[in-house]
Design goal:
Four copies of one chain form a homotetramer. Chain A has about 290 residues and is α/β, with parallel strands linked by helices. The first copy, chain A, has eight helices and 13 strands. In chain A, the strands form three sheets. The first copy, chain A, has a seven-stranded mixed sheet. In chain A, strands 2-3-1-4 form a four-stranded antiparallel sheet, with helices on one face. In chain A, strand 5, helix 3 and strand 6 form a beta-alpha-beta unit. In chain A, helix 3 runs parallel beside helix 8 and helix 7 packs across helix 8. Chains in contact: A-B, A-C, A-D, B-C, B-D, C-D. At the A-B interface, strand 11 and strand 13 of A face strand 11 and strand 13 of B.
Chain lengths: ~290, ~290, ~290, ~290
Amino acid sequence: MESSLQVDVEPRSVVLLLHCPLRIGLAASLTEFVYSSGGRILYHDQYVDPEKRHYFTRLRWDVSGVSATDQEMTNRLRTLIGRDPDSEWALYFSDERPRIAVFVSTDPSCLYDILARCHSGEWTVDVPLIVSNHSALEPVARRFGIDFRVFPITKESKREKEDEQIALLRDHRIDLIILARYMQILSGSFVSAYPNRIINIHHAFLPAFPGARPYHSARERGVKIIGATSHYVTEGLDAGPIIEQDVMRVSHRHSVDHLIRLGRDLEKVVLSRAIWSHVQRKIIVYAGRTVVFD
Amino acid sequence: MESSLQVDVEPRSVVLLLHCPLRIGLAASLTEFVYSSGGRILYHDQYVDPEKRHYFTRLRWDVSGVSATDQEMTNRLRTLIGRDPDSEWALYFSDERPRIAVFVSTDPSCLYDILARCHSGEWTVDVPLIVSNHSALEPVARRFGIDFRVFPITKESKREKEDEQIALLRDHRIDLIILARYMQILSGSFVSAYPNRIINIHHAFLPAFPGARPYHSARERGVKIIGATSHYVTEGLDAGPIIEQDVMRVSHRHSVDHLIRLGRDLEKVVLSRAIWSHVQRKIIVYAGRTVVFD
Amino acid sequence: MESSLQVDVEPRSVVLLLHCPLRIGLAASLTEFVYSSGGRILYHDQYVDPEKRHYFTRLRWDVSGVSATDQEMTNRLRTLIGRDPDSEWALYFSDERPRIAVFVSTDPSCLYDILARCHSGEWTVDVPLIVSNHSALEPVARRFGIDFRVFPITKESKREKEDEQIALLRDHRIDLIILARYMQILSGSFVSAYPNRIINIHHAFLPAFPGARPYHSARERGVKIIGATSHYVTEGLDAGPIIEQDVMRVSHRHSVDHLIRLGRDLEKVVLSRAIWSHVQRKIIVYAGRTVVFD
Amino acid sequence: MESSLQVDVEPRSVVLLLHCPLRIGLAASLTEFVYSSGGRILYHDQYVDPEKRHYFTRLRWDVSGVSATDQEMTNRLRTLIGRDPDSEWALYFSDERPRIAVFVSTDPSCLYDILARCHSGEWTVDVPLIVSNHSALEPVARRFGIDFRVFPITKESKREKEDEQIALLRDHRIDLIILARYMQILSGSFVSAYPNRIINIHHAFLPAFPGARPYHSARERGVKIIGATSHYVTEGLDAGPIIEQDVMRVSHRHSVDHLIRLGRDLEKVVLSRAIWSHVQRKIIVYAGRTVVFD
């Protein structure tokens, strides 16, 4: 809905992502707040989890006619929303371009797809940095003029190398990390530095076939459908909140190599949909699951 | 392809399902055999597993112009195909209507769907018997005039009741057993009495969410796609060769009850496709997987 | 979302379906109205068409604690909503069971599916009447104990027969008419007697292949995907507002008969999803299109 | 199936694509021919159109152990296959890399996707030339070091410019032309110079919404599913043989811009699957339709 409004000269806007225990009148207060401050609502979606009585909303409004500063708006919202320990919210202004680091190993498919979307103008994000445990994809980075850093990681060096990576990510003011077929498991302490800000693509329909070599497992089990899953990274392997999944039909005629080839397209599309939902600020994580607004 | 030939007065035909180690010239021998005996090929599909060098074929021909008896044809084929311990084959004549027993508990959806297909003429099969561990669906059986037998099963009585069931199935000359949401696990000895002739519908995308309450697990895990899987029953729970699967997209907005409601349609369609493939003699099981011809 | 609340002893509830030109504060007024009258919101979804600045909402609330009568609630809402010529709304109370007439010709698939859903308790609707231009499906009606009326229609008798049909529908207090593969085009005057209350299933992915024999056209054109479309009936053939569509992959291997067989399952599922959305009061028609809430 | 054999040092192989009126014994003659010449069959698929009694086959074999020259093999096959006016066949050797020209206008998505697949080694093809009626995508060509030629085309200059384009294509020994969102209709004489060797991507589910602005039409009609179609280009606009199609669900919430954004991913995937099937020599065109082998 909102994308129709993004064309050409789009006014400055802000997205509020909020979840909290269900409270009567909150939605009305929020819309009232927007209108009274001179804003124009561009998008408003809400969801109530009926079992947990928990409220989720995404509200986006045009702030070009708002006289209050961003800080003043934030302060007023803080008062309005209040403090509940089971509540979280944030404002995202449209002129803050997300800064993304892509982590890769040797498979270039997802990386190419991400860079093409950035450079074609399809996505309004910056990718200043590519990190790898392998030098294979350096030519791709060079083709697009992006900083490429190799961190060969061994069991012994992992802690140290991850610290270097985090320092580098901070230097580049990275908001979001994409694991684009990065064949290296991140430690819990790395993950906790970027909560719900690391997106991985797993080449299977989770929770089926977690771990390595899922296409081999799929072939072995004789499934008739294969899939791909993008999720936020948590400490548990392939157990983080699922953002997006997709599948395609296969048959006994598909060898493992054929499955891998077909799966690559799934992975690209599923990963890019997840990234796009994240940078559009459409995702709220709660209780190990995602709410993804349209 | 062959269904276009089944309309109206269809001539008598036979299906050969065969798998064996790859042998050069076998396909040519089989087609030569059909032509020389006066048959007309209606369908011929083949598949070679390139890793195992194993050959699978489905050959269907019009036998209305064949002068040899069914037994003579069978004998000649036996000579032609030979005996390999890793080989299996069978002939299925079109005037042998498969006889199906449906096992149910309390959910009528799949049962209604199966009976509607049989009574509308969509399927050319007979369903002379419905078996249940519960009396809930007796009215459905009565509506369609089908014998309905209740076997309440406890841990202690299981062996005895299963023996009675098998005797009943034999009395009814049952070829194929459908577990249409039958909430009772069959013992290994029951299963071995009907190898690759018991089809179950599991209400999840196997191997994700085996066992009971998969929709609860799916909701809990926050998957974005749910599925259903039909498979031949083996001793391992939900581990038998997969025949057919299908999926549909869901979101955080779907409660467990909503998932169950949506999943019911998946289950019906996936189960019925599997039954249809089986009775059309399109499925070969080998190495724990199925080859399902088009 | 709401279905989780329908289990067991569900309290009496009401659905408001409303569309009108976008008006600031209306949503807040509506929720305020519900709370102040003692209601408890079970579901609230809204949509704004950004081009037309038109507002759509579905609001469902528990009225078991509301002291006002239904008529009083309706009156207050009338005042609150006001009168705009481009506005429409209605209240649907949960204890009014929709009464459905099914129109058929000779294909029993959709009819069986509808009746199974009603008799298994999956749907809380009544089907007191089946209308046909052919006697072929009378045994199906008899099996379920439903009144079956045959109206053989010729060009000359059409007007008269349709008048008789409408009289019959009124006698049965029919709310919704389902054309379940009814091979007869309704006249404009019949259609206008049941605006947005006649649902048809078309056996193709509209707007591709309108009219008769779409599977033949699909085969001829060599499409790789076939579909089915359910829509409200308007005067233009197969041009009414689309409610639901679904598709499946096919290939050159599928004959017309095979496409018809596969398509039948699509038709059943797509039609039943449309009916369910309608009776759940999830559909608003505006400007020739539908808004279908989740 | 064959892709499992392409890994690492793959032996030289050849693909035979053949269609002809059904002739008994031809399949056996072809396999016999391969074995007797020292070849090893890697893939064999066949299809008979049961209505037209027309035979289609794709046969691929390892020629590394064949002593005959390519020309000798071709000659023997010519004798074996014979000449039927309704027959066509060709041999494609694995060491002939297809040479592709991509025609574009201003949308870079499909172009980036094609170039990424070529440069990542996913496809074994060469893209020596990009042709456009616009200079917008020159930076993309430069990034990948590919010759980029602009032909601004007016009604008056079309004939002349197309002649220049054909000369250029011949200079580059182009085998296959991809219209990757090329916003210019090719003349009949251009098309006839590359029969079944020009692949277009249409951003809709043909035959629904041919012509320009299909997403606007889809939104206007209120469809619940959008699609993309890749097809060989013939003189009739968007009427050529369909190679591949895919779809995705949408709803009233999707604006035209949102549909365009979602559709872009469909277009990329559908176009690339069609190109891959073509360069793998898996497609036979007959009677305005395609047979696409697995």
